[in-house]
Amino acid sequence: MESPLLFLITLLCFLQSLLVASHNLSKSSTICKTTPDPKYCKTVFPHSQGNVQQYGRFSIRKSLSQSRKFIRTVDKYLKRNAHASPPAVTRALQDCRFLAGLTMDYLLTSFETVNETSTFKTLSFPKADDVQTLLSAALTNEQTCLEGLTTAASSSATWTVRNGVALPLVNDTKLFSVSLALFTKGWVPKKKKRAGYPWAHPSSGTSTHTKPFRLFRNGALPLKMTERTKAVYESLSRRKLTDGAGDGDDGSMVLISDIVTVIQDGTGNFTNITAAVGAAPNNTDGSGGFFLIYVTAGIYEEYVSIAKNKRYVMMIGDGINQTVVTGNRSVVDGWTTFNSATFAVTAPNFVAVNITFQNTAGPEKHQAVALRSGADFSIFYSCSFEAYQDTLYTHYLRQLYRECDVYGTVDFIFGNAAVVFQNCNLYPRKPMPNQFNAITAQGRSDPNQNTGTSIQNCTIRPADDLVLSNYTVETYLGRPWKNYSRTVIMESYIDGFVEPVGWREWNGDFALSTLYYAEYNNTGPGSNTTNRVTWPGYHVINSTDAANFTVTGLFLEDDWIWKTGVPYTSGTNLTAYDVVQKYKLPRGILPEGVIDYDLNPKTGFFKVYLNNTCRFPIEVYKVKYQPIVSGFIKNGRVSRLKGVSVKVLYFWLSIGEVTSDGQELELSVGAASEEFSAHQFARSPQCGCGFYCRELKFSS
Ligand SMILES: *[C@@H]1O[C@H](CO)[C@@H](O)[C@H](O)[C@H]1NC(C)=O
Ligand SMILES: *[C@@H]1O[C@H](CO)[C@@H](O)[C@H](O)[C@H]1NC(C)=O
Ligand SMILES: *[C@@H]1O[C@H](CO)[C@@H](O)[C@H](O)[C@H]1NC(C)=O
Ligand SMILES: *[C@@H]1O[C@H](CO)[C@@H](O)[C@H](O)[C@H]1NC(C)=O
Ligand SMILES: *[C@@H]1O[C@H](CO)[C@@H](O)[C@H](O)[C@H]1NC(C)=O
Ligand SMILES: *[C@@H]1O[C@H](CO)[C@@H](O)[C@H](O)[C@H]1NC(C)=O
Ligand SMILES: *[C@@H]1O[C@H](CO)[C@@H](O)[C@H](O)[C@H]1NC(C)=O
Ligand SMILES: *[C@@H]1O[C@H](CO)[C@@H](O)[C@H](O)[C@H]1NC(C)=O
Ligand SMILES: *[C@@H]1O[C@H](CO)[C@@H](O)[C@H](O)[C@H]1NC(C)=O
Ligand SMILES: *[C@@H]1O[C@H](CO)[C@@H](O)[C@H](O)[C@H]1NC(C)=O
Ligand SMILES: *[C@@H]1O[C@H](CO)[C@@H](O)[C@H](O)[C@H]1NC(C)=O
Ligand SMILES: *[C@@H]1O[C@H](CO)[C@@H](O)[C@H](O)[C@H]1NC(C)=O
Q1: Ligand 7 atom with least separation from CA of 319
Q2: Structural domains of the chain sorted by starting position, each given as residue range(s) with its CATH number in brackets
Q3: Residue whose CA is closest, atom 11 of ligand 12?
Q4: Could you tell me if 331 and 273 are in contact, meaning their C-beta atoms sit under 8 angstroms apart?
Q5: What is the dihedral of CA 21, 22, 28, 33, to 10 degrees?
Q6: Partner residues linked to 539 by β-bridges
Q7: 276 CA to middle of ligand 6, Å?
Q8: Which uninterrupted H or E stretch holds 333?
Q9: Which ligand is the nearest neighbour of the Cα of 295?
Q10: Measuring CA to CA, how many Å separate 517 from each of 383, 416, 483, 647?
Q11: 528 lines ligand 11 (CB under 6 A)
């Protein structure tokens, strides 16, 4: 029997769909008002009426055909200029060709997705987020190509390249921006992050709030291998794979499909990384697990580029400073910033662990990238990035850096990805005299791009050479590379060497009112925000706003991280006490089997009292972790808990309990955010599996 509330909602939805059908036809001039460049937008559409989705599909299809045209143009110039042009111009053209190929892929996927909506109307939130991500990347590709060309082809001898290739790009960039704007308006829910319902998320098997926390550190991972693969891994790493954490059927272990080894003395499968990457299977869907490349200790002097078809590669080294990939290409020596990278990856779902990536060109060679990632769902865990200007190019798409060290000088973390740095060390170094350091130079160029750099629970300290420097160096948290530059620093330690104003202009008042820079709950002598810049785009934010830049805030979905075994924090670091106070958790709403809890405002710890028939989610762990957890559940009471951490998932708050020996126990103590009234719990599918639904008692 449907509840009256549900019926009302159904009715409202029905009425709304009628309204959509009859009232949303508009002239292009009306639709174009919502795009960044209305004047250009109007030139895109023929004079007709349509709704925003029809215009959106048209624009994306047109972007696709323009992109095909552009590839033909670049190919023509590459052929004609192969020998005539300076190498720098050829390289810039090659970048453009490479990027245009990727752009085609992104636009094609986007078009196929929106094309389906002519029959199936709506997109799920994650799918809409995927397309917004791809269209954001397509736009960044145009800019990357344009910038490379402008730098390389600055002399009059190369004006044909500029006119022939760079000029059409200007309009294409505008067209892509229109596509992104219309897609965002037509398909992306306005308050997608907050307004989502957990049951509206198609979960791939494991639902988010039943995942146990992972407590691995320093590059350790819960890998699951065949006997043969395991033997190779264990003999090389001199480490035993940990057993007993689970059998992997619930996704708690990370499956490895095969292993190849890179050993410089010739006793492994390969002596260099490039050859090993070549052996990885093409275009796997990951269902068989990751292809593991074990790179043993050594200095690898090679330029590695992992092409888009080498999906699901996991590269493990022997540790930071042990396995080192090094190179020294730079802009001064005739490379573009883009192709100066020592190590570059485009393949989705790439994971690197325990490796140092270097560019040793030095500060006098200006832009010289150590690592560039344009790989969707790429993760770097316990890695080090060492260079000077432009060390780490987080080009675009979705990325996570966990427990990494990043060394550099000018703009040393830059690009336009949606990227979170968690528990990392950022080390500004000594630049050239008269230079200043900027830790970030985020490159968001369009208000509809869903990108940004988030730095969470990191440590910002000077590198040794900066400490010992015999001249004064100013260090800033960041500066706006592009108009809508977006960077958030939260829960991090900022040492006193960072300038009190915090942030630096790029050029006059460029971007100062369109950028978004924010700080939240940082510590350390450099974290005092009293004397910070007063730009319109600078903010000291609260936890609600900061939540938009956590893993679940920025990425919407975190399954891709979970599947790699890499530990991560999905929300902000709140204690259980913070959460319960903040959201005024009604005592009546408790997980099934939880009778009551105590909160300690001093420590933030809480104790949970259970009855003996607790079925969710304890049961899961009874099965999986019985030997460990049983010791802690006695007479319906969980005790001797060492730490407490809290995940804020959409509007669910899962309060996770960490037991003293490193094993994990998570209790979903369902609580509501402001937008989610307690009454709505009754509609949750978790009813009967975690929550008393029929007997909800509300104390507020
Ligand atoms: C777009 O959808 C139509 C049917 O609605 C189909 O015939 C066409 O092949 C689709 N195009 C692409 C590129 O998927
Ligand atoms: C760019 O688009 C505008 C408006 O449609 C047009 O007038 C102009 O000629 C185009 N420029 C190029 C180089 O195609
Ligand atoms: C990375 O190195 C650390 C420290 O040597 C080690 O504990 C960890 O297991 C390594 N990770 C992997 C996946 O081998
Ligand atoms: C790698 O080397 C091992 C041991 O020499 C061998 O069994 C395996 O087949 C090799 N793998 C590949 C992909 O060559
Ligand atoms: C990498 O090793 C392969 C053979 O395994 C060899 O053919 C190739 O030249 C090597 N590349 C470099 C850059 O050393
Ligand atoms: C992957 O595809 C390339 C061509 O793109 C081919 O040369 C190579 O042999 C393939 N590798 C594997 C492991 O199938
Ligand atoms: C790696 O080596 C550098 C330079 O010697 C040193 O500063 C750094 O602490 C080392 N990193 C680790 C994690 O050992
Ligand atoms: C934050 O980083 C510190 C190391 O700097 C680490 O000890 C702590 O556990 C981290 N907190 C979280 C919630 O990961
Ligand atoms: C500063 O130190 C550098 C070496 O790092 C040295 O070459 C230079 O002469 C020193 N300059 C001064 C003014 O002491
Ligand atoms: C900020 O972090 C501190 C711990 O470093 C914590 O005590 C405090 O409650 C946090 N503030 C907010 C607003 O979350
Ligand atoms: C921050 O700086 C201002 C001005 O220098 C000072 O008055 C204030 O006490 C500082 N706050 C903290 C928490 O140190
Ligand atoms: C956080 O700040 C925003 C403004 O940026 C404000 O709208 C919101 O109400 C604040 N939330 C809380 C819980 O204070």
Answers
A1: 13
A2: 25-187 (1.20.140.40), 222-240+253-395 (2.160.20.10), 409-564 (2.160.20.10), 576-681 (2.30.240.10)
A3: 544
A4: no
A5: -90
A6: 518
A7: 12
A8: none
A9: 3
A10: 26, 14, 12, 24
A11: yes
- pLDDT tens for 572-620 read 655 445 545 554 544 444 554 555 565 555 544 445 555 443 333 322 2
Q: How far apart are CA 20 and CA 693, in angstroms?
A: 34
The two tokens of residue 308 are 């888009």
| Residues 6 or more apart whose Cβ sits within 8 Å of residue 32 | 38, 41, 42, 45, 178
Instruction: Retrieve residue 521's tokens.
Output: 């709950």
SS3 content of the chain, % helix, strand, coil (to 5): 35, 20, 45
Distance 478 CA to ligand 11 centre (A): 21
pLDDT, tens digit, for every residue of 111-149? 999 998 766 567 887 889 999 999 999 999 999 999 998
Tell me which residue has its CA closest to atom 1 in ligand 2: 171
User: Cβ-count burial of 65 within 10 angstroms (0-12 exposed, 13-18 middle, 19+ buried)?
Assistant: exposed
Cβ of 115 below 6 Å from ligand 1: yes
The β-bridge relationship of strands 641-649 and 652-659 is: antiparallel
pLDDT of residue 663: 35
Q: Are 570 and 556 in contact (CB under 8 A)?
A: no
Structural contact between residues 540 and 529, judged by C-beta atoms closer than 8 angstroms: yes
- C-alpha–C-alpha distance, residues 526 and 651, integer Å: 33
Atom of ligand 10 nearest to the CA of 575: 9
Torsion angle, alpha carbons of 88, 93, 97, 99, to 10: 60
Does any ligand 7 atom lie closer than 6 A to the CB of residue 324?
A: no
Enter the pTM of the model: 0.84
